[in-house]
């Protein structure tokens, strides 16, 4: 049978995690933190990379990037001082880390801000290496993988009395066949992203024939919850949330990837994220996906890295201060104020808005989308930094040439060389590390499970039906 969470009797209150401490930069004084920093971004290809580079430069910092792509959007931006072409971490993680080290030395880097799944490669290879880990704004490798893994993330939420979908770990197709199929289920890889390899299993319908579950590819099955969808992006240090953006999922290109962003406030979501960050003692960037029904607020996925919520902060706002707070560990946390992205702030990814998924929409919905398209500021275009927009035809040509060489679609190609997908013995080692973190040094050290582990738990600890 597929596994469901069991009660954990081995816990020691709500203490922060010891494994977190070694990864927070400790070598900068308060005086040094006030100077302008040399900051390295771990890729330069995404709109998020460009937007963050511009925000950092507007605050007076010098921005550098590394990327496996020779040509990317940040390479042509005035916000970026230099770009290094490095090996792809998906293919050559050690070569990628060597490129990062070169950039650190040449640019005298003070702070490294990870942007995508290259953070897993860096933290995995560089454990105990202060040259990189001491400058990296991210939690430990074991915490990262437990948050990224959908099964362990579910267990963490349960231990913190945060509502989560009923979830089962499936190691084989037989595990899926043995599930109670009387209600709709979501079936997805434990190490997946967005909607890749997501199956919507309709109640009492036959299973698809192409589910690739095996020793190197475990899945989780979750009760499919219908409701309003929201995304968050947060920055935290030592368990204190310093910046937060919340936005509903509206216009998408594939049902999950947002191309239009509008900032809102949601007290329930804010409280949920704050509890998680505080109980983890979290330092770094963290993004959660939520579904809200009439009676529940449920987190369904965690991305412990940068996401599109960055777009909802303007230049010279609190996001940059939150990120650079990592170099000033001598100042008390209370001296850093909390920043919520300005309510009503709007941004769009214009190419994505043009490719908007609009099948079956009404005329009113179409006109509303058109109004957003024509009135909302684009993430890429800037009068002060026009080259990233002007170079789009060249970049698209370059991207499609790579797609042709690799026989990949554009979306897959754009992420492939940064993704982290452990297999074989590496996966076995990762699984052992997650088990140790969970049982001894991680989530197991916080509040214990309530109920039998198969029931949803609300934020006040009450068991939901």
Automatic annotation (TrEMBL):
<feature type="domain" description="ATP-grasp">
    <location>
        <begin position="154"/>
        <end position="328"/>
    </location>
</feature>
<dbReference type="GO" id="GO:0046872">
    <property type="term" value="F:metal ion binding"/>
</dbReference>
<dbReference type="InterPro" id="IPR011761">
    <property type="entry name" value="ATP-grasp"/>
</dbReference>
<feature type="region of interest" description="Disordered">
    <location>
        <begin position="1"/>
        <end position="23"/>
    </location>
</feature>
<feature type="region of interest" description="Disordered">
    <location>
        <begin position="443"/>
        <end position="465"/>
    </location>
</feature>
<feature type="compositionally biased region" description="Basic and acidic residues">
    <location>
        <begin position="1"/>
        <end position="12"/>
    </location>
</feature>
<dbReference type="GO" id="GO:0005524">
    <property type="term" value="F:ATP binding"/>
</dbReference>
<keyword id="KW-0067">ATP-binding</keyword>
<protein>
    <recommendedName>
        <fullName>ATP-grasp domain-containing protein</fullName>
    </recommendedName>
</protein>
<keyword id="KW-0547">Nucleotide-binding</keyword>
């Amino acid at each position: 049978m597929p596994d469901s969470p069991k009660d954990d009797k081995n816990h020691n209150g709500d203490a922060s995690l010891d494994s977190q401490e070694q990864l927070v930069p400790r070598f900068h004084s308060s005086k040094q933190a006030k100077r302008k920093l040399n900051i390295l971004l771990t890729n330069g290809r995404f709109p998020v990379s460009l937007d963050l580079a511009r925000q950092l430069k507007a605050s007076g910092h010098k921005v550098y990037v590394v990327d496996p792509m020779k040509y990317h959007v940040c390479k042509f931006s005035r916000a970026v001082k230099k770009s290094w072409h490095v090996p792809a971490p998906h293919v050559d993680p050690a070569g990628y880390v060597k490129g990062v080290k070169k950039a650190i030395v040449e640019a005298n880097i003070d702070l490294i801000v990870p942007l995508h799944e290259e953070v897993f490669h860096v933290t995995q290879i560089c454990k105990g290496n202060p040259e990189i880990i001491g400058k990296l704004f991210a939690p430990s490798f074991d915490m990262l993988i437990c948050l990224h893994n959908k099964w362990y993330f579910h267990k963490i939420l349960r231990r913190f009395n945060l509502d989560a979908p009923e979830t089962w770990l499936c190691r084989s197709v037989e595990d899926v066949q043995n599930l109670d199929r009387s209600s709709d289920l979501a079936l997805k890889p434990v190490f997946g992203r967005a909607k890749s390899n997501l199956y919507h299993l309709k109640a009492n319908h036959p299973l698809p024939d192409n589910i690739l579950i095996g020793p190197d590819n475990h899945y989780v099955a979750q009760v499919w919850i219908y409701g309003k969808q929201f995304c968050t992006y947060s920055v935290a240090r030592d368990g204190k949330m310093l910046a937060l953006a919340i936005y509903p999922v509206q216009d998408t290109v594939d049902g999950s990837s947002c191309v239009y962003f509008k900032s809102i406030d949601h007290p329930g979501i804010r409280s949920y994220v704050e509890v998680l960050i505080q109980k983890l003692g979290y330092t770094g960037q963290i993004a959660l996906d939520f579904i809200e029904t009439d009676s529940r607020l449920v987190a369904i996925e965690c991305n412990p890295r940068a996401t599109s919520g960055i777009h909802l902060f303007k230049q010279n706002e609190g996001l940059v201060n939150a990120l650079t707070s990592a170099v000033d560990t001598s100042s008390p946390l209370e001296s850093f104020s909390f920043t919520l992205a300005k309510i009503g702030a709007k941004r769009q990814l214009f190419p994505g808005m043009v490719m908007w998924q609009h099948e079956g929409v009404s005329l009113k919905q179409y006109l509303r989308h058109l109004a957003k398209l024509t009135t909302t500021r684009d993430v890429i275009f800037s009068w002060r930094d026009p080259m990233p927009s002007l170079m789009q035809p060249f970049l698209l040509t370059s991207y499609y040439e790579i797609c042709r060489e690799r026989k990949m679609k554009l979306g897959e190609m754009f992420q492939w060389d940064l993704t982290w997908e452990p297999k074989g013995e590496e996966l076995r080692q990762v699984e052992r590390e997650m088990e140790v973190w969970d049982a001894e040094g991680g989530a197991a050290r916080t509040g214990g499970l309530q109920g039998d582990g198969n029931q949803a738990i609300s934020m006040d600890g009450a068991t939901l039906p």
